[in-house]
Amino acid sequence: MTDGPTTSASFEPLSPTSFLERSAEVYGNHVAIVDGKFTLTYSQFFDRARRLARLLRESGVQRGDQVAVLAPNNHVLLESHYGVPYCGAAIVALNTRLAAAELAYIVGHSGSRVLVCDPHFEKMGRDVCALADTSLHLLLADDEYERQLADGPFLHELVLDERGLLALNYTSGTTGTPKGVMYHHRGAYLQSLAMTRHFDLDSSSVYLWTLPMFHCNGWCFTWAVTAAGGVHVCLPEMDTAAAWRMIDEVSVTHFCAAPTVLLMLAASPDARPIAGHSLQVAVGGAPPSPALIQTCERLGLDVTHLYGLTETFGPVAICDWKAEWDDLPLIERSRHRARQGVGNVISQNLRVVTLDMDDVPRDGATIGEIVIRGNNVMLGYFNDPLATEHAFFGGWFHTGDLAVMHPDSYIEIRDRAKDIIVSGGENISSVEVEAAIASHPAVLEVAVVAVPHEHWGERPIAFVVVRDGHQVTEREICDHVRRVLARFKVPDRIVFSALPKTGTGKIQKFRLREIAQSLEPEHGRQRDEQ
Amino acid sequence: MTDGPTTSASFEPLSPTSFLERSAEVYGNHVAIVDGKFTLTYSQFFDRARRLARLLRESGVQRGDQVAVLAPNNHVLLESHYGVPYCGAAIVALNTRLAAAELAYIVGHSGSRVLVCDPHFEKMGRDVCALADTSLHLLLADDEYERQLADGPFLHELVLDERGLLALNYTSGTTGTPKGVMYHHRGAYLQSLAMTRHFDLDSSSVYLWTLPMFHCNGWCFTWAVTAAGGVHVCLPEMDTAAAWRMIDEVSVTHFCAAPTVLLMLAASPDARPIAGHSLQVAVGGAPPSPALIQTCERLGLDVTHLYGLTETFGPVAICDWKAEWDDLPLIERSRHRARQGVGNVISQNLRVVTLDMDDVPRDGATIGEIVIRGNNVMLGYFNDPLATEHAFFGGWFHTGDLAVMHPDSYIEIRDRAKDIIVSGGENISSVEVEAAIASHPAVLEVAVVAVPHEHWGERPIAFVVVRDGHQVTEREICDHVRRVLARFKVPDRIVFSALPKTGTGKIQKFRLREIAQSLEPEHGRQRDEQ
Q: What is the rounded CA–CA span in Å between residue A238 and residue A124?
């Protein structure tokens, strides 16, 4: 019944690259991309993507190959999200914050044939090619490239298998070599539709590229914004003044960001309340703090907290806001908004389980691991069957994130497995302590790690960045924490220092642990009080 | 790369029935269904659907069977859209306006094992069972049924094949025996996501069931509203007073309707401008007239014109409104809104082609047939390989609708193949003449058909229903048409009479043709002027 030639008209492989085809039809002369003074309509965007495909074919790229791209958040990278698949290849969007040796590892491991390189990164691109152990063709996006994209024949390969490879996203783990997360067309298509649904993206949307496109292909917004026929506003570098200028000038309606970036934007002297249009902000990577939420509310930003991983095409869960929470006091609202939430509309299988894969009770207290199945889960790690098998143990993708399930089905992360601090037999969630410290008005950023302790096993130590123009003492912070958390959760020490971060802005907790262990002992002051 | 046990976690069959599972999780204690005094939360909705599946199994329904449902637009029919598939069977939602013999044909042809019957239709249900030539178990949705649905074990079969059968929708053609259009899970899932996207359905949406659920499963809104977590407001009978009362009482945000139904609602003495919330109306089946659009604008209804067929899960195209049209004069706005539009977000392949399957030029003038491929196309006609082969000739689904392609990629239907009037070698679109007549303020409804003519081959005749409290003469209408259309398109005669309709409200043009041919000749008055 489901086979045979008469029904082939009822099946088309799902691919997010088809959204550009539709938007070029429907919104052909609408603005698709604003990149500085460079503006493209959807019709031009589609044409250029098909010419890029031709150019790649002329550079030797065949169906089934990989193509790496080293570019800032600009039209070159955006076009590559279509041009590379139109050539039948998979895109490897490179993290521009990595060192040449790291990038050389990634292009080598991914087997990329061509490196598309923005002129801004020409030196780095050449260094990567020199270091790469495979023969790699450098395709510099220079004036000649522009000439070739402005004219000439198209290439537009059909997607034959919706479960085929669309992209490789290398995870920037804090330890170990990066792993290539394999995205399939079907997953990215559905995830894009989920993003348009949850963020009401439509042809009047104006999306600001604050989130790097090399993060999970911009949480699939590279495709979702196109599906909606909205405007992509490029922001090659994260510059708060430029961001606020664009928000004003082109009436930005949406952007995505990690809390750190949102914090920078909200704390910028250019920040001003939004007027005349709504601005939806998707925040992921860590829960937004109450102070941040309050600041955003004052600025008129509509913040939604998302949760996801590279392995899940970005946001697999959404902290879906309920009208009944609107009138709660700030602290309650923040508590609701800080939860990771529920599976997005296409994510049916998000569980919190024990080691035996039993669901934890919905009590908001019992900690288990978040495991996921579904169409927005990666195919596996590229050329790494062992890591893949480990991640998919028992037929579910294991996130490594430890969470509780609340009675209303919302999940809340308590910690990464390795970030749990075990003190005197009691578990201390570093996230919980961080949230408590972050709620102090003088605190801009905080990270809490465990240090070994002879009596208690482990104890928490906090690293704090103070907000500009504020002053605070260790004692004041500890008193503040004591007001909201059990005494044993108060950090043994507050270190005022900058936080070491990875290229993608993740705090390097392993570095903090090293620093914490090298600190002079402080007479166990806090311990004596316990 | 795409196979093996490690990647099974990245593939789940798509089925719209999974949306209820998610909404029961996320919106468990939100209202899902309002049906008179009967109100169900999403959690209760999900429980009842799983108990209905069990009840069906107890009645002998097995995986792969069909289950027919005879019910008004109420909770019984809505629950069946989940309960039947949860039992592994396909739902056959029966048109309640058909006669017993017609329904007996459908339950027989579909091979339905059980007929779920609302008590309101008990007599009809028993008549159908008596007439059906297969043994058919009648499951009456009476008090005992309610008791069984209120308690007891669940059944929830997994969907094994996303291209498997979800529903059969029998087309109510004006001639010939009804054909069973086969819906697959994948198509209904994607179509539901497309509807949530184009109508901004979310958990604050309140959807009024003016459209019969037996029409393409309510254009897939039976699943789309659930996907959004919105409220289904049942309207067992189309009663304009009740509809307006619900619009007020529960602040309805969305409904779907044919222009005839929208006309009834807008012309009702209960009609009043919407205040305090927006009301989006999806109109399909025929283009809304300028007068109707103007009335809707005055009432504050936001009208979107859709185009689709039973074979395409309902709306395959949408007349996507562009902000640049907002300030056009009414007549221009109406012209834009009357176009069938562009493929919806999941419909990539909508073409207007010649007999040789070449695309017609995008000139807004050359007429071709609309053909469609894609995931929201039926599998075929149930147990009718010949009709299926015919419909999918050349690998595309043939709609039989004749249209032009405008330069901006919007399609506009000019006629059904059989409704084209060929007069003196010129094609006259009956739709075009109908639109011209409908734009007269005194005209409530109109249908134009061809009558044979010895000199010209065919000539148009119009049947007109005059708006209450208005008067108009044949001459006035003809003068009105002459002002906007070429003289040869003016109908030879205007007949003031009610319009015969099918059970689903389609005008029976074949009946009108018969009436037209039986009319006394009128001295060929209009002809002499030509």
A: 19
Angle at B148 between CA B144 and CA B150, to 5 degrees: 115
Prediction ipTM score: 0.85
Alpha helix segments (H runs only) across B352-456: 385-391, 430-438
User: Among residues 78-137 of chain A, which lie with CB inside 8 Å of chain B?
Assistant: none
d(CA B351, CA B404): 10
Question: Which tens digits make up the pLDDT trace of A116-136?
Answer: 999 999 999 999 999 987 789
Give residues with Cβ within 8 angstroms of B452, minimum separation 6: B458, B517
Closest residue in B to A4 (Cα) is B379
Tell me how far apart the alpha carbons of residues B343 and B309 are, in angstroms, rounded to a whole number: 13
Whether the CB-CB separation of A20 and A42 falls below 8 Å is answered with yes
**Rounded-to-integer distance, Cα A508 and Cα A174, Å:** 6
- DSSP annotation of B337 reads H
Cβ-Cβ contacts under 8 Å for A313 (sequence gap 6 or more): A183, A187, A188, A191, A216, A217, A219, A220, A376, A377, A378
Q: Are A491 and A450 in contact (CB under 8 A)?
A: no
Whole-Å CA distances, B402 to A506, B74, B352, B369: 58, 36, 8, 4
Q: Is A514 helix (H, G, I), strand (E, B) or coil?
A: helix
Size of interface A-B (CB pairs under 8 A): 154
Report whether pLDDT(A69) > 70.
Answer: yes
Interface residue B409 vs chain A (CB under 8 A): yes
Residue A118 CA to residue A101 CA, distance in Å, equals 18
- Closest CB to A26 among B1, B5, B320: B320
Q: What is the CA radius of gyration of chain B?
A: 24
Q: Do B408 and A204 touch (CB under 8 A)?
A: no
In angstroms, the CA B396 to CA B357 distance is: 9
Q: Which of A8, A278, A319, A345 to mutate to test the interface with B (most CBs of B within 10 A)?
A: A345
Q: Is the dihedral of CA A452, A454, A458, A460 positive or negative?
A: negative
Tell me: the pLDDT tens digits for A167-198?
Answer: 999 985 444 578 999 999 999 999 999 999 99
Token pair for B440: 């007269």
Cβ neighbours for A275, distance < 8 A, ≥ 6 positions apart: A300
Helix and strand element counts for chain A (H, E): 18, 24
Please state, in angstroms and rounded to a whole number, the distance separating the CA atoms of residues A327 and A321: 12
The pTM for the full model equals: 0.85
Which of helix, strand or coil describes residue B246?
A: helix
Answer for the pair A234, A73: CB distance below 8 angstroms, yes or no. Answer: yes
User: Residue B19: closest CA among chain A residues belongs to which residue?
Assistant: A345
Q: Which two tokens stand for residue A268?
A: 């910028």
- Best of B312, B321, B339, B345 to mutate (most A CBs within 10 Å, chain A): B345
What the block records as the tokens of A194 is 């989920």
Structure tokens at B438: 């409908």
Read off the tokens for B82. 């989940």
Three-class DSSP category at B460: strand
Tokens at A153, concatenated? 């024949």
Q: Where are the alpha helices (DSSP H) in B392-529?
A: 430-438, 474-484, 509-518, 525-529
Given a contact cutoff of 8 angstroms between Cβ atoms, the answer to whether A481 and A488 are in contact is no
pLDDT category, B529, cuts 50, 70, 90?
very low
Asked if B342 has any chain A CB less than 8 Å from its own CB, the reply is yes
The span from the CA of A349 to the CA of A453, in Å, is: 39
Nearest C-alpha neighbor of A158 from the set A285, A13, A342? A13
Please name each of the domains of chain A with its CATH number. 424-529 (3.30.300.30)
Phi, psi at B117, each rounded to 5°: -130, 125
Residue partners of A6: CB distance under 8 A and separation at least 6: B380, B385, B388, B389, B392
